[in-house]
Design goal:
The strands form 2 sheets. The chain has a two-stranded antiparallel sheet with strand order 1-4. The radius of gyration is 16 Å and the shape is globular. The chain is 14% helix and 14% strand. The protein is an alpha+beta fold and 115 residues long. It contains 3 helices and 4 strands. The protein binds iron/sulfur cluster (2 copies).
Length: 115
């Protein structure tokens, strides 16, 4: 775990574990793995309600949420978010809602060649 998370949750040094896993993949394969263009809805965050509990970071299957150390706010990654809504279901503060991609000017559904 990153020092930021260990510090936030006061995880003792001996209980720290490494982030994620190493998945061998040829360089250049990543563009083929972008899943943002599957999305028909996107999670939208209400920073007033967000308690930075990190549930969305933990549950997102594509690691699309992270805590920005400067602003101390959760940041979303549109390139890999497939709109599965897991983060919305797992948010204990009701800080996430889904909104249709068509409601956004650059929404995936509006792009000729999304990502
Ligand atoms: S799960 Fe909800 S409250 Fe927790 S960090 Fe994510 S948006 Fe914020
Ligand atoms: S909708 Fe799914 S893929 Fe997108 S951020 Fe939430 S959990 Fe991750």
């Amino acid at each position: 775990m990153s020092p930021l998370y260990c510090e936030k949750f006061r995880i003792p040094k001996h209980l720290e574990i490494a982030d994620g896993a190493v998945v061998p993949a040829p360089v250049g394969e990543q563009p083929m793995m972008k899943t943002g263009n599957w999305r028909i809805e996107r999670p939208v965050i209400d920073h007033e309600k967000c308690t930075t509990c990190l549930n969305c970071f933990i549950f997102c299957p594509d690691s699309c949420w992270h805590l920005d150390p400067k602003s101390e706010k959760m940041v979303w990654d549109p390139i890999y978010c497939k709109g599965c809504r897991i983060c919305v279901e797992e948010c204990p503060a009701d800080a996430l809602r889904l909104e249709n991609e068509l409601n956004f000017k650059g929404g995936v559904a509006r792009l000729d060649k999304p990502y």
